[in-house]
Amino acid sequence: MLAGLVAALAVGGLLSGCANDALAKQYTSGDDKNYIAGSGVTEVAPSKRADPVTFSGETEDGTTFSSKSALGDVLVVNFWYAGCPPCRAEASDLAKISSEYASKGVTFIGVNTRDDAATAKAYDARFKVGYPSILDVDGGAVQLAFSGSMRPNATPTTFVMDRKGRIAARIAGDIAVQPSTLTTLIDSSLDESK
């Protein structure tokens, strides 16, 4: 019996050594990425959507954006920060999609979770981002507004909000892997009756 217990412990020790997941590798690499990337798409049927998410905040150019001003449009909300590699990877796709949908009743807003205005403006210029971003670093009010059942748990996270301001979908992670996922979700929300 003792030999069986020792063998079981040895096998358990070997298996636990194999459980070196990607997050652990990131941590031990010492490259100080300071982010956790997510992955996955969650859609919510219109009949299952929670109450509207209401938020506002000052943007990098000093103006105030309010989600109430976008009611009647589909609103795309992207949580990001300049030092986030997946955010940089998806920036050109987001900029392109926002331009393509600008005249179709779709509003884009970024939510910068870490940077000051100068850093956000430099990022916008470098990646040709034409829509504003709320600077949410000093208190996280916008992040708190999304703290219900569907949170921005990873960076980047992109939400598609329906015309009533309710969360229709969440993309956790980089949209650059397949930008058509975002356009499909936007099209689906646009096709819903007003």
Description:
The protein is of the alpha/beta class and 194 residues long. The chain has a single domain (36-191), classed as Glutaredoxin. The protein is built from six helices and eight strands, in the order ααββββαβαβαββα. The protein has a six-stranded mixed beta sheet, with helices on one face. A two-stranded antiparallel ribbon has the order 2-3. The relative contact order is 0.21.
Q: What are the SSEs and their pairings?
A:
Layout: H1 2-17, H2 22-29, E1 40-43, E2 56-58, E3 64-66, E4 74-80, H3 85-101, E5 106-112, H4 117-127, E6 133-135, H5 141-145, E7 157-161, E8 167-172, H6 179-191
Parallel strand pairs: 4-5, 5-6
Antiparallel strand pairs: 1-8, 2-3, 4-7, 7-8
CATH classification class: Alpha Beta
**Mean pLDDT across every amino acid position:** 85
Number of strands: 8
Biggest sheet strand line-up: 1-8-7-4-5-6
Q: Give the structural class.
A: alpha/beta
Query: Which homologous superfamily in CATH is the superfamily?
Result: Glutaredoxin
Number of helices: 6
Radius of gyration: 20 Å
Unreliable stretches: 5-37
Query: Helices and strands, in N-to-C order?
Result: HHEEEEHEHEHEEH
Give the percentage of residues in beta strands.
Answer: 15-25%
Proportion in helices: 25-40%
Whole-number total of structural domains: 1
Shape field:
globular
Q: What name does CATH use for the topology? A: Glutaredoxin
* Separation, N- and C-terminal Cα atoms: 70 Å
> In the CATH classification, which architecture applies?
3-Layer(aba) Sandwich
Largest sheet: 6 strands, mixed
